[in-house]
Every structure is written in structure tokens, then in C-alpha cells.
Amino acid sequence: MRVLYLIDSLNRGGVETLTLATCHKADEAGIEAYVAGFGDGSFADAFRGLPRSFFRKRRAPFDPLLVGWLRRLLRTRDIALVHANQAVEALHAWRARRGLPVKLVLTLHNLAYDAKNRWALDFLLPRVDAVAVVSEAARQWHEANGTLRRARWVTVLPNGVPDFSLPPALASGWEATGGPTLGMIANFTPVKDHATLCRALPEVFARHPAAQCVFAGAAQDERLHREARELCARAGLLHRVRFLGSRPAAEVLPRLDVFALSSRSDTFGIALAEAMLAGLPCAASDIPALREVADNGAAAALFRAGDAADCARVLNRLLDDATYRRALATRGQAYARGRYTLPAYLARLRDFYDQVLAS
């Protein structure tokens, strides 16, 4: 089964990480993976290292030359199915595959879309062969908001978490204090809520004087990144908080004692699943998608979204109670191993593709 994965951005992010890991392991599920990249970014070298990867710069929101290039790729490589993760990718693929025996599927990774992408989705959803959403919570949200009303077929396809091997040493800037280390891995974007965790830290640090915290994630929204730093600076905590920039989870998670994910909205929460699979005790905002990954609080502790005092309470309980901390980590890891490993994801993905191709 030859599948072409489209990737518009080559920056480090959840979709890019999952696509890269899928392409590395797809053969194990009987999928011959090809990649077509339309842009550039920090992950470019990793994608270019794949054995069946092709690249062409997208020059406009809709690029007819890119469509022609994609069509030639579909025909010469005998592609059976195209998997897109963004509307702009799917729009080019829809036009490129016209008249060809090629199926097209689209995964929705977001909840909110701007006007341009909403228009594109309204046009595309009746025209793609299937739509995947990454959690039951995301499916319910999209159905309630009418996003899926014209889709032919919708399925829930939870993401998978790549396995990681022994990590390289962190670059300069990491200084162990001998106390517990909290950490959050998330790019600075409007849907994430680094500020709530920053506001919780004074209470946590007052109770645990040797604790420190690290934030790993690209400053995609400079204002939010600056706000988080300023909150820590005003509280006099910058000497105990590190902003590491974009780092892979495999590099950061082994250095943590507790993982926290503070978010305003989410469709899945792959960083939370990664931390659970790594065996860390985890805390997360009590929002539908993260509640789903956390098994309603049984696999990861939950705090009220946007509530710094409740966030501090949950983190302090994790740091105070070693028995609870170990038990939560054990439950979380077992839950994640049963649902969110990459092999489990690839098995779901292959079943999905088989159904689409048979339809």
C-alpha cells in the first residue's frame, strides 16, 4: 500500500513529529510511505533524510504549479492514498488527484480555524474520502460546531507517540539543582496556557525550595513567550526557570520529575501522552481532550483550566506524596502503553486505510 503524506510545514511540532515517526515505522504495518513537503523549517533535514521524500516550495495559497508537480508524483509513484493534515495540503491534493484512482483523507488536528481555512474545509469535507479526528472530544466539538456536517465519513483516530531511545545531553543552559524538576513541553501558541503554570510556580517553589521548572517549546507567539518570562521575572523566579526553546521530548522528559501541561484548548495532547508513556507523573488542565488522555484523572492528575491556585495544589500534592506520585506514574504509563504507542497507532492507521480503499 503506497501512501503519500503531505506536510506543509517542516518545523518541529506535534503533526510533524508524528508524520516523521510514521514514515520511519510505516513498513512494519505494510505501508510504503512517501512524503511531499511544501515548505522549510527546523525539521527539514530529518524529513529530507527519509528514503522516499520529495520537496517543492509552495509559492501561493493555491499554487497550480505545485498541483501539477503533485499529480506527476501520484502517477509516477503509483500512489494509492494521500493523507493530508491541513486544509491547504488537502486542497492541492484534491485538485492533483482528479481523474486518478487515488483516495484522499484529511486529519483535523485543530479545533478553531480562521475564515480562510473554514472556507477551505467547507469546500473539502464533502470531497475527501474520509476525515479523521484525533480524539472523541474533538469529534464532539466539531459536530457541535457544524464542522463535520458535510463530511462523507468521519472516524476517531488517536495519535501515537514515538518511542525514544537514550537521549543526547542537553545543550548548555541546563543546571541541575538537586531538587525536583517540573516541566512543560508545548510551543507558545494561543491554545496553550503557559501563563497559568507560571502563576502557580511561586506557591510551588515556596513549598519546595530546591524545585525548578523548564519550558520547552518554540516562541511561535512572541507575545505569549514574553508574558511567561515576565511573570517569572516579576515573581523573582528566573533563576529557577529555564526557557529551552524547541527541544524534542526524548531530550527533555528524562530530565523531569513531574510533567505539567497547561492548555486552554486541545484536540489530543500528544505531549501529555509522551510524558505518560515515559513513566512520569503528570498533571494537566481539565479540558475535554486532556481529560480523555488522562482517563478522567486516573492516569494523570487534573487541575481546573486557567486556575493557578488549583494548578499549584495539584503539583504540590505530586511533589509532597511519593506514594501517590509513583502510583500515578505507573497507572499513566500502563494506560498510555495500551492506547498511544506508535505500533498501536500504526495498526489503527492501517485499518483506517484499508476501509477507505475498500469503500
**Helix segment tally:** 14
CATH fold node name of the largest domain:
Rossmann fold
Mean pLDDT: 93
Quickly give the structural class.
alpha/beta
Shape: elongated
Strand order of the largest sheet: 3-2-1-4-5-6-7
Radius of gyration: 21 Å
Helix content: 40-55%
CA distance, first residue to last residue: 15 Å
- Number of strand segments: 13
Main sheet, how many strands, which sense, barrel? Answer: 7 strands, parallel
pLDDT < 50 stretches: 165-176
Task: Describe it.
The protein has 359 residues and is an alpha/beta fold. It has two domains: 2-160 and 341-358, Rossmann fold, CATH 3.40.50.2000; 181-339, Glycogen Phosphorylase B (Rossmann fold), CATH 3.40.50. It is 42% helix and 16% strand. It is built from 14 helices and 13 strands. The chain has helices spanning 14-25, 44-48, 64-76, 87-96, 115-124, 136-144, 194-207, 222-234, 249-252, 270-277, 288-293, 308-320, 322-339, 342-358, and strands at 2-7, 32-37, 53-55, 81-84, 103-108, 130-133, 154-156, 181-185, 212-216, 241-245, 258-261, 282-285, 301-303. The strands form two sheets. Strands 3-2-1-4-5-6-7 form a seven-stranded parallel beta sheet, sandwiched between helices. A six-stranded parallel beta sheet has the order 10-9-8-11-12-13, with helices on both faces. Strand 1, helix 1 and strand 2 (32-37) form a beta-alpha-beta unit. Helix 10 (270-277) crosses helix 13. The two termini are 15 Å apart. Residues 165-176 have low confidence and may be disordered.
